Amino acid sequence: MVENEVADEEHNYMQSYSSLVLEIKELEKQIAYLQTEMATLQSQKHPLTVANVIDNEQKMLMYTSLKPQMFRIIDSTLQRFPLVYVDSWTPSAFSRTDQLFMTLMKLKLNCPFLDLAERFCTSKATIHNIIITHVFALHEVFFEGMMENNIPSLLKCKASMPASFGDFNCCRLVIDATEVTQDVPGQDMTAQSQTYSSYKNRHTVKSVTGVAPNGAVVYVSKLYPGSTSDVAIVKHSNMLAKLSPGDMILADKGFTIHSILPQGIHLNIPPFLKDKGQYTPAEVQVCRKIARSRIHVERVNERIKNFEILSHIPQQFRHISTKIFQVCAMLVNFQNPMIAEIANNYSFDQ
User: Fold this and answer.
1) Cα torsion at 41, 45, 51, 52 (round to 10°)?
2) 34 near 42, Cβ under 8 Å?
3) Which residues touch 166 (CB under 8 Å, ≥6 apart)?
4) Which long-range contacts (CB under 8 A, 24 or more apart) does 61-67 make?
5) pLDDT band at 345 (very low <50, low <70, confident <90, very high)
6) CA geometry: angle 30, 32, 33, nearest 5 deg
7) Hey, which of 152, 212, 255, 258 would disulfide with 251, CB 3.0 to 4.6 Å?
8) What is the pTM of this model?
9) Per-residue pLDDT for 129 more than 80?
10) 3-state secondary structure of 249
11) With pLDDT > 90 as the criterion, what percentage of the chain qualifies?
12) In sequence order, what DSSP letters do the residues of 255-268 get, joined into one string?
């Protein structure tokens, strides 16, 4: 009787042992499978998305020049309008938000199309389709729809006039010219002559930009050949027609536009030395006051050219170079205010 019980216990033990061995082998197979799957997943590329960086302000500034809340404002506004893609097909693999993110990366960092294709795990053709389409969309919605022909009135300018404009309280616009280099325009000798800038010793295109006294970009002309004078750009762009009697313009010495000013529009530029040996004390004071107020438009132009896509305009972008420049200028208005006195009056976290 006792021997039978011992035999039964040994039999049960052997069965338990055998089942445990089988279970361990099965678990080892599962572990091996999971390790293989994990290695496969780790070797796969994961596309960059805005979700990866939207909560990191420093990364958003690096990739787009914008803080997250400003990016969201542009994104939500743009999504209210349908897109017509330039290559006649819709890249459905990417959300509209990620497509905007790609475009801003191109403007800010000027990443080559192949680089962006690698980052977002797609083709160069898809990147081209997305970016060119969004440049057109951003230009139409934000520049044409909100900035163009919308220079703030003198009354609005006075409402946010910084202290540095105390001597120019009728100023509505501070203007300056800025140049961007470009590729030599083909074999056309006339075009080459027109785009060659003696100031830069390069082939360039030029724009006249205008800021309100509070530092906001309110006027951006189209791009003209680099040899075009500042006066010719002002005249051809019809900028003066946007102003009203009583308005004042601040500019540098290159803008000798007195003869084309509409009646009632005032121009304030630094005095010319001419044949005099030196400026009078009064003229020195005028120069200093104008320079102190004009510095804002120069800083705006610096911000515009911080978009690396404007470091040099290649042949492939020449046909949309004006749109690219004006979009970059528009985006400056979504960055932190230029003047600390103005920034202190607003909260951008609401």
Assistant:
1) 90
2) no
3) none
4) 62/108, 63/101, 63/104, 63/105, 63/108, 63/109, 64/101, 64/104, 64/105, 64/108, 65/104, 65/107, 65/108, 65/306, 65/307, 65/331, 65/335, 66/104, 66/331, 66/334, 66/335, 67/336, 67/348
5) low
6) 65
7) 255
8) 0.84
9) yes
10) strand
11) 63
12) ---GGGPPTT-EEE
Amino acid at 140: E
| Helix (H), strand (E) at residue 332 | helix 321-332
Q: How far apart are the first and last CA of the chain?
A: 87
**What pLDDT band is residue 32 in, cutting at 50, 70 and 90?**
confident
The pLDDT, as a whole number, for residue 268 is 92
182 within 8 A of 312, measured Cβ to Cβ: yes
- Give, in degrees to the nearest 5, the angle at Cα 119 between 117 and 124: 5
Report DSSP state, residue 180: E
| Tokens 């939207």, residue located | 54
Max CA pair span of the chain = 133
- The pLDDT tens digits of the residues spanning 246-293 come to 999 999 999 999 999 999 999 999 888 776 678 788 888 888 888 888
CA 176 to chain centre: 20
Question: Residue 17 burial (CB < 10 Å; 0-12/13-18/19+)?
Answer: exposed
C-alpha 314/C-alpha 235 separation (Å) is 28
Tokens for 47?
Answer: 């596309």
Strands 202-211 and 171-181: antiparallel
